[in-house]
């Protein structure tokens, strides 16, 4: 007999802050676990001692150029408290001239010497890396934004050819090989085709010649993946794609995430630039702005779709928008007033799943979820194995969950609210064809269903 279950249950809030804090405090010194590496499943990242690593990134492209030391410390402390593990930033940034002083008073490049980094700027990068280490954070470090190789819509200038890119890469590899908290990210919103391919390969190989200690990936332009050009390259440890700022449904993950997971050799993959919170949709004010609901959808749809991590972004923070600076992409709040936006503050609730289930033993479960009410606004996704299933419902009123025979001995059903992290009382069930009603219905009312034996 099929039954319909709704949440007429008490949500348990007791102990939740302690559960989350335990993970954050424990990861203040993650570098004792050894280097990062790809795990045995080839789908996820881990430390050398086999401790799982969740790549939960924040986008701070202009941090090195636009923030003072006091600003950096404020920002990193805030991000650590929210559960981030990686900060993505750029040595040669996009927005400002490379020969005018940064917030710390030193230009990135020496005047009249095309690709010679200013020693004072390098010292500031060193300090930022140490400060991030103090907070237990990795830095996803881009050697140069993509316009320094392929100008297109950027400021440029185009600095590198194949030879100079390799020399530059060797310099960075030598200087930073022994820092414990770096993840190298090639690219920067550009493709790897044409002349770009040889230049990016040369820079990546230059780093790897002198630095075998750190993982490396590539950040492409919107709605593209590193796999389009570099999947077979030995330096690419995991794929990164950019779902971008125009798509609003799981369809973009079907095109990029699922495609990358089907490649050989198998490599981990993550969304390195999804919809920024508070950016205009399609870069047009008339289309509205992405909100916390969009952040939650990209987080849970990608992670339950099999990604090894996720990068958050806020339109006001990536550019470090502040008084005296021009607004890019219709930024409207100062960066320091945007640190606690709703979507950002809700990311930490994902740890309730990550800390309690072994994602490396799970897979995306296709075809087990079907809307009862004809809901077709977006896809629900499911992930798990024979001992647990996690379902994310972006909306609707009710869903059918079809279970395999291995669940016929019964299981526990529990709801999680991704907006506040609250959990319902777990209820024992035996139905193999389960009909569930969402605990709360309406616009932006997404829910997570947990089934476990």
TrEMBL record:
Start and end residues of each Putative collagen-binding domain: 377-451
InterPro entries linked to this entry: Apiosidase-like_cat_dom, Collagen-bd_put, GH
Protein name: DUF4038 domain-containing protein
Species assigned in the record: Bacteroides stercoris
Domain called Apiosidase-like catalytic: residue spans: 40-359
A Pfam family recorded for this sequence: Apiosidase
């Amino acid at each position: 007999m099929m039954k319909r279950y709704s949440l007429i249950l008490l949500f348990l809030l007791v102990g939740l802050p302690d559960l989350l804090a335990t993970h954050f405090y424990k990861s203040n010194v993650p570098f004792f676990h050894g280097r990062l590496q790809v795990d045995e499943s080839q789908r996820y990242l881990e430390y050398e001692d086999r401790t799982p690593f969740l790549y939960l990134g924040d986008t701070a492209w202009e941090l090195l150029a636009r923030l003072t030391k006091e600003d950096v410390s404020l920002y990193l402390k805030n991000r650590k408290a929210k559960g981030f593990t990686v900060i993505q930033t750029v040595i040669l940034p996009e927005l400002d001239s490379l020969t005018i002083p940064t917030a710390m008073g030193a230009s990135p490049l020496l005047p009249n010497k095309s690709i010679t980094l200013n020693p004072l700027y390098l010292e500031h990068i060193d300090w930022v890396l140490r400060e991030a280490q103090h907070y237990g954070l990795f830095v996803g470090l881009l050697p140069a934004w993509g316009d320094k190789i392929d100008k297109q819509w950027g400021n440029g200038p185009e600095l590198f050819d194949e030879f100079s890119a390799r020399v530059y890469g060797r310099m960075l590899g030598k200087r930073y090989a022994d820092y414990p908290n770096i993840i190298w990210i090639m690219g920067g919103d550009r493709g790897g085709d044409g002349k770009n391919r040889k230049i990016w390969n040369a820079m990546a190989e230059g780093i790897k010649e002198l630095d075998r200690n750190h993982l490396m990936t590539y950040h492409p332009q919107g709605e593209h993946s590193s796999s389009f050009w570099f999947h077979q390259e030995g330096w690419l440890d995991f794929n990164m794609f950019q779902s971008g700022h125009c798509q609003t449904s799981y369809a973009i993950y079907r095109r990029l995430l699922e495609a990358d997971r089907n490649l050989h050799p198998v490599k981990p993959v993550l969304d390195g630039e999804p919809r920024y919170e508070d950016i205009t949709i399609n870069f047009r004010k008339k289309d509205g702005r992405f909100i916390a609901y969009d952040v939650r959808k990209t987080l849970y749809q990608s992670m339950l779709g099999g990604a090894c991590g996720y990068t958050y972004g806020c339109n006001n923070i990536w550019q470090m928008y502040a008084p005296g600076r021009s607004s890019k992409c219709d930024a409207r709040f100062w960066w320091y007033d945007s640190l606690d936006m709703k979507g950002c503050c809700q990311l930490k609730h994902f740890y309730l799943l990550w800390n309690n289930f072994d994602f490396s033993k799970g897979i995306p479960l296709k075809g087990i979820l079907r809307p009862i009410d004809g809901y077709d606004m977006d896809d629900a996704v499911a992930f798990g194995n024979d001992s647990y299933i996690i379902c994310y419902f972006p909306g609707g009123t009710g869903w059918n969950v079809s279970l395999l025979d291995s669940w016929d001995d019964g299981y526990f059903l529990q709801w999680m609210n991704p907006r506040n992290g609250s959990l319902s009382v777990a209820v024992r069930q035996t139905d193999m064809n389960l009909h569930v009603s969402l605990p709360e219905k309406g616009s932006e009312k997404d829910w997570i269903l947990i089934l476990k034996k």
